[in-house]
């Protein structure tokens, strides 16, 4: 049996664990980090963790280490070139090379959307598809592409910047500098903004801390106006996701979409709206028999995805 | 040296010829067809042409036959399932299998946009790129995808339905049943419609038969109002192409775009507008160093592309 270390570096913590090639999570830890820390302050505890693991479990050989982070990682050099605003200290570093030099074990770094996609491809719902797109709905929208059974990374490794597909050239300005980006309609903050705007317009006072989860919960359970508005927001979010999926289908003739990320547990509620609107945006022949589903991996998806990505790259 | 027969079946004629693996067109003929003819009436002269060629030039062996047509060809069965409204008799036929059985030579059929892309990949401007998209601007908008150096066809063979990417969910209705398709903004008829609308709104009488070529010619040479309007139309067309390219870049992290099709000879005029607007629609990291150019193959692109596609599929 092969074993992989998965390292998922986010804004406030590093999740780290060991995953087998059968997708079993053997061990897991969370290292809290200060998002403003220096690079060394984050990497040193990761190195320590790996060193301790290798020492204590010397009989269990590790085939490769996978590291998932935000941002654009140049696939040629391994350097994170930009886009890691939540964990700024990662920028300009080749973290995989550093860990590989330190451990002597092959190490790979990829964008967290790519890692999530690798996780679904190896251990989740993607196992039965050769051509699919995964999207991760959270604070932003990320994702990854599987084409001909393999992760497609693009010429520099930056592919699948799905959250910034333009859905409306006259839409809201995005903080990327473009207008009408997908993220402006279906990310967590966009869903919350749509909902709170609707409350404000109806003169309904907002007492609670509104989150996307709160909205999805209300849509399920609330029979009154707040539930109606929540269901309307979900309907509109599904419409926009359908538009993005339609465009992706027209370009790539996919078999399936997998929806993951922070929203995905509540995401089942989005599926009817997405499916109902899909054919408004796709050439009929390309919309047939397309499966749309919620991700298989939920908890630990970050560690599992990073490990799966290492597994995938080791085999290529 | 290897030789390939290229067959380009369009609405009013079949173009057929022999192309070497170095991209030399050895022989070429045009067979006029009646678009309302039965299937046999179109295929019999093609079979006759091939039979005569093989008899007369028996020393010149043919490695494969490539057939380019409109429509969706199921890559598993080789059957054209839909989308060939201009040459309706092709529907439900597996033309490659028929020619393969007749000649004993491997034969392949693909969408004409895919063939055009194969032509550029093997013999044209695509030779130096591993990840690019070709678009063909004509009566409609088609194209093809080259990813990791190979043509990407999608799960059923229907990929690259680029003309029906939604650029504006509130845009003009397209005859595909969706709104705001790319084709509604940058195909030949869309360019003509935009131009004539502008003339009508300004009370300018239209005496000539307006074509996209006429508009491009005027933009070059006419210093007066018609030239100004023509340049405005080209500017607006370039903006929409930039939006489509931005979305494709965000998804696929490409190196280049190649513009072919009927419009492409005049297309140089579009490039400044496309390049100027590209960064309005793409994440900066993915817009860097992207080449945008007019196709290398012009005359005989149909035959060359069909032959190149056969060459490409024989090698896979």
Description:
Two copies of one chain form a homodimer. Chain A is of the alpha/beta class and 316 residues long. Helix content of chain A is 38%, strand content 20%. Chain A has ten helices and twelve strands. Chain A has a five-stranded mixed β-sheet. In chain A, strand 9 and strand 10 form a beta hairpin. In chain A, helix 5 (188-201) packs across helix 7. Chain A is globular and about 60 Å long. In chain A, 53% of the residues are buried. The mean pLDDT of chain A is 95. Chains A and B meet through helix 7 and helix 9 of A and helix 7 and helix 9 of B.
State the major sheet of chain A. Answer: 5 strands, mixed
| DSSP strand count of chain A | 12
- Strands of the widest sheet of chain A, in order across it, are 3-2-1-4-7
Average pLDDT rating of chain A: 95
Helix content of chain A: 25-40%
Greatest contact pair?
Answer: A-B, 48 and 48 residues
SSE topology string of chain A: EEEHEEEHEHEEEHHHHEHHEH
Q: How would you classify the quaternary structure?
A: homodimer
In short:
With 316 residues, chain A is of the alpha/beta class.
Keywords:
10 helices, 5-stranded mixed beta sheet, 316 residues, 12 strands
Topology:
Two copies of one chain form a homodimer.
Chain A (H helix, E strand, L loop, with lengths): L2 E7 L3 E8 L4 E8 L6 H18 L7 E6 L2 E2 L6 E3 L12 H9 L3 E5 H12 L8 E6 L3 E7 L2 E3 L30 H4 L1 H14 L10 H10 L3 H28 L3 E5 L10 H7 L6 H4 L3 E4 L6 H15 L1
Parallel strand pairs in A: 1-4, 4-7, 8-11, 11-12
Antiparallel strand pairs in A: 1-2, 2-3, 5-6, 8-9, 9-10
């Amino acid at each position: 049996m092969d074993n992989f270390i998965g390292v998922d570096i986010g804004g406030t913590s590093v999740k780290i664990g060991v995953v087998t090639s059968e997708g079993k999570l053997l061990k897991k830890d969370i290292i809290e980090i200060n998002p403003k820390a220096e690079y060394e302050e984050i990497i040193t505890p990761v190195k320590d963790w790996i060193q301790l693991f290798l020492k204590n479990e010397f009989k269990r050989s590790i085939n490769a280490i996978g590291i998932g982070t935000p941002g654009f990682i140049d696939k040629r050099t391994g350097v994170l070139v930009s886009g890691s605003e939540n964990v700024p200290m990662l920028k300009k570093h080749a973290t995989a090379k550093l860990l590989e030099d330190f451990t002597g074990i092959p190490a790979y770094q990829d964008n967290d959307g790519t890692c999530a996609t690798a996780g679904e491809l190896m251990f989740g719902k993607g196992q039965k598809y050769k051509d699919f797109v995964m999207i991760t709905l959270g604070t932003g929208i990320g994702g990854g592409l599987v084409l001909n059974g393999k992760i497609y990374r693009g010429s520099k490794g930056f592919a699948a910047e799905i959250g910034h597909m333009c859905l409306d050239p006259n839409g809201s300005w995005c903080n990327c500098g473009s207008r009408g980006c997908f993220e402006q309609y279906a990310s967590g903050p966009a869903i919350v903004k749509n909902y709170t705007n609707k409350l404000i317009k109806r003169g309904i006072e907002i007492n609670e801390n509104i989150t996307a989860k709160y909205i999805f919960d209300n849509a399920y359970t609330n029979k009154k106006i707040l539930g109606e508005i929540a269901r309307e927001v979900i309907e509109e979010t599904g419409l926009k996701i359908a538009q993005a999926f339609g465009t992706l289908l027209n370009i790539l003739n996919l078999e399936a979409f997998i929806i993951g990320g922070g929203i995905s547990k509540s995401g089942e509620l989005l599926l009817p709206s997405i499916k109902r609107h899909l054919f408004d945006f796709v050439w009929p022949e390309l919309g047939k028999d397309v499966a749309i589903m919620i991700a298989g991996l939920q908890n630990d998806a970050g560690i599992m995805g990073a490990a799966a990505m290492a597994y995938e790259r080791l085999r290529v």
